[in-house]
Design brief:
The complex is a heterodimer of chains A (about 240) and B (about 350). Chain A has about 240 residues and is mostly helical. Chain A folds into two domains: about 80 residues, Up-down Bundle (Fumarate Reductase Cytochrome B subunit), CATH 1.20.950.20; about 120 residues, Fumarate Reductase Cytochrome B subunit (Up-down Bundle). Chain A is built from ten helices and two strands. Chain A is elongated and about 75 Å long. With about 350 residues, chain B is α/β, with parallel strands linked by helices. In chain B, about 40% of the residues lie in helices and about 10% in strands. Chain B has a five-stranded parallel beta sheet with strand order 2-1-3-6-7, sandwiched between helices. Chain B has a two-stranded antiparallel ribbon with strand order 4-5. Chain B starts with a helix and ends with a helix. The chains are: A mainly alpha (about 240), B alpha/beta (about 350). At the A-B interface, helix 4, helix 8 and helix 9 of A face helix 11 and helix 14 of B.
């Protein structure tokens, strides 16, 4: 196939690597990943607590520690997300890509279709991209960006119930989000459901990252570690820019 | 001129000393400092009684039952005589046309000055025929009385949110008061029923200060509905420690551990039960060993089960909670991923085979 048809010399002449993800983006990615794992695990145990603790209440603070971990990780995730938005303005154009869907761009939609075909085994070869491929961008923008926004807003609305009326968390989030959903229990249910959406996202995200690393025409996992995108062939890239 | 509150109370044989005691207790109940005692006394001595029309729509009268059991020593005697309760079909002596005539009389005489207390709600389906008062739909009586009132008190979860008659599928389309009346200030005092002392305190506050108590965004008095049951629950230390009742007859239930796993809605319910409690501060549901059912929250009948932490989500006629729905979705995604991995591996192997041949 493609790689098979290339000679070793051609491979040596592959395009030079491109510096895609700057340090703040990479750092955010891995901190965010860690936070999401902590949030999912602790969040699950807040909804379905561990078996009861024996002895005196004063000897334990298990639920307290689980909730503390959840709230701390939530704060780190929220602040990290704000920083990530800030970096979208400050960083290179790849740092902006995640936040903007080029929905009016016909070429981009064709790209989405082509990648979908590639994943449905209907085409022989994926396109080649410096940034995110269109299908990945669509998926990450909808699930990750909006999922995170949803979880930050509903999360702070629930947290504000504990800090109480008058606290900024309550005034900014709980005071309007809780009535918007109906009542507190509804916000809990939606916060819980979207956790599962994010878990589904993680399963797919990790799988396709590995798969792309092996089967696509550019590097994937190492790029999120080093920031450099490398390529497996020297033909033209398909990014719009 | 109508009598003042003080005159009424004295006429009822209440001593000056008892009256001052009442004022100080009311000040405490409202969370006011001692300096407010003379202010309340002064207001009681000088202000004429405020007429109240107490209407009953689609409801069970549990709000009235709660109200007349106000543990406050003077509430029964004082509040009911204090306010000029001109119309309350459940507890008034008059009946039939006489009773209905009083409504008209009050509306005419005190137009723009009376308080409209609504217990229950109007059903809108079948032209409101599911609740008939004096031969007419309750909706007519409500909109007519609301037109001329000063403010509305929505007693209980029926008037505030709809309660059981508005639970899915809501056959009569029972509708809370604020969705029918839009041009009057409305205080919601939710609960099924609301706590007696909360009800009397809300009335007393309005009478004393001639204004509404401070309300939250949903229209509930902040002084009673700003915290969750969970925030002030005496079993909270067991929650923080991770000590839960796992079944109704286990050792933890006998020891009085947290009822969170048994579906207690304390963490999502705004009310004053864990501080004021019920029946002269005797107890409240959690103290009696049963979880809170969240009766002062919007649509609590449809947020079940009352005995599970996670709410049932009806879908395709099967009930499942967020964990079941989510875990199923994750399992489907996981299985699809594994299938895709296998397909990818097969395809790659076939391609390699092609290249070699």
């Amino acid at each position: 196939m493609t790689t098979g048809q290339q000679t070793e010399q051609e491979l040596y002449r592959s395009e030079p690597a491109v510096y895609v993800y700057e340090a703040p983006v990479r750092l955010w990615h891995w901190i965010n990943a860690l936070c999401v794992i902590v949030l999912c695990v602790t969040g699950y145990f807040i909804g379905s607590p561990l078996p009861t603790m024996p002895g005196e209440a004063s000897d334990h603070f298990l639920m307290g520690y689980i909730r503390f971990a959840h709230f701390s990780a939530g704060y780190v995730l929220a602040i990290g997300f704000l920083y990530r938005i800030f970096w979208a303005f400050m960083g290179n154009h790849h740092a902006r890509q995640l936040f903007i869907l080029p929905i009016t761009n016909r070429h981009w939609w064709k790209g989405v279709l082509h990648e979908a075909k590639w994943y449905a085994f209907l085409t022989k070869e994926p396109h080649k991209y410096i940034g995110h491929n269109p299908l990945a961008l669509l998926f990450m923008h909808v699930m990750l960006v909006w999922g995170t926004v949803f979880m930050i807003f509903t999360g702070f609305a629930l947290y504000g119930e504990g800090t109480g009326m008058g606290s900024w968390q309550y005034e900014w989030f709980s005071s309007w989000i809780i009535p918007l959903f109906g009542q507190s229990q509804d916000v809990h249910t939606w916060h819980h459901l979207v956790m599962w959406v994010i878990i589904c996202f993680i399963i797919i995200h990790v799988y396709v990252a590995i798969r792309e690393d092996i089967m696509s025409r550019q590097s994937m996992i190492s790029t999120m570690v080093s920031g450099w995108r490398t390529f497996k062939d020297n033909r033209a890239v398909d990014d719009e820019s | 001129m109508t009598e003042t509150f003080y005159e009424v109370m004295r006429r009822q044989g209440i001593t000056r000393r008892s009256f001052i005691k009442y004022c100080s207790l009311t000040a405490t109940a409202l969370g006011l400092g001692p300096t407010f005692i003379p202010k309340i006394a002064h207001a009681m001595e000088t202000k004429p009684r405020i007429p109240i029309l107490w209407l009953h729509g689609l409801e069970c009268t549990c709000c009235s039952e709660s109200f007349i059991r106000s543990a406050h020593p003077l509430a029964k005697d004082v509040i009911l005589s204090m306010v000029s309760l001109d119309y309350d079909d459940t507890i008034m002596a008059a009946a039939g046309h006489q009773a209905e005539a009083i409504v008209e009389e009050t509306i005419e005489k005190y137009s723009g000055n009376y308080i409209l207390a609504v217990e229950g709600n109007p059903p809108l389906n079948q032209d409101g025929m599911s609740c008939i008062i004096g031969g007419k739909p309750f909706l007519d009586q409500l909109t007519h009385a609301a037109e001329h009132c000063k403010a509305i008190i929505s007693w209980g979860s029926c008037a505030s949110y709809g309660c059981v008659q508005a639970a899915a599928p809501n056959p009569t389309q029972a509708t809370p008061v604020h969705k029918v009346i839009h041009n009057k200030p409305i205080i919601k005092v939710p609960g099924c029923p609301p706590i007696a002392e909360v009800m009397t305190a809300v009335v007393t506050y309005i009478l004393t200060f001639e204004r509404m108590p401070e309300l939250d965004r949903q229209g509930r008095p902040k002084m009673f509905y700003s915290q969750r049951i969970h925030d002030k629950c005496y079993r909270r230390p067991h929650f923080d420690a991770g000590q839960f009742v796992e079944s109704w007859d286990d050792d933890a239930a006998r020891k009085g551990y947290c009822l969170y796993k048994m579906g207690c809605k304390g963490p999502t319910t705004y009310n004053a039960c864990s501080t004021i409690r019920w029946n002269e501060g005797t107890s409240f549901p959690i103290q009696a060993g049963h979880g809170c059912i969240g009766c002062s929250e919007d649509g609590f009948w449809d947020k079940g089960s009352w005995y599970a932490r996670l709410t049932d989500i009806p879908q395709f006629g099967v009930e499942a909670n967020a964990d079941k729905v989510g875990a199923t979705a994750a399992a489907v995604v996981g299985t699809a991923t594994v299938a895709h991995i296998a397909a990818s591996a097969v395809k790659r192997a076939m391609q390699k085979g092609d290249q070699e041949s």
